[in-house]
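Quick start: what a row looks like.
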Amino acid sequence: MPDDITIRRATADDSKRLTRLVRTSAAYRGDYAAMVDGYQVGGAYIEHHPVFVAVDGNDRVLGFYALLVDEAELDLAFVADSAQGLGIGRLLMEHMTGQARAAGLHAVRVVAHPPAEEFYLRTGAVRTGVLPPAGRIHWARPELRYDIA
């Protein structure tokens, strides 16, 4: 992993870069493209929820996550295609569980993109079920949980 990585609280100024990361994610091509088509990580969303971004020494966005504290749910988690396999996702999930612990949460729910399930399992989540297809989402989605110690 590059040694110049910082995780910082995202600001509304990060909105365009985070939106671009979501919309260009290789994980959401083909059948899954409908999930991110037109998706926006808006400034108001970033200001309202704990959204944290991993950046390198040049402030290049490597990944981010959004934790919905009131719902105890990981809403978004993305790593840039160019940063896959560098440990950024693991670093973000460790940070997320620390934020959840600090917020007094005992568990964090994740409704995963099917190809991401293995990542969540490798980083400590446990599978709790499956959500059936609904609306624009025509595939079942794994439901997982991080237990916060």
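That is the whole record. The longest strand covers residues 61-68. The CA atoms of residues 110 and 144 lie 5 Å apart.
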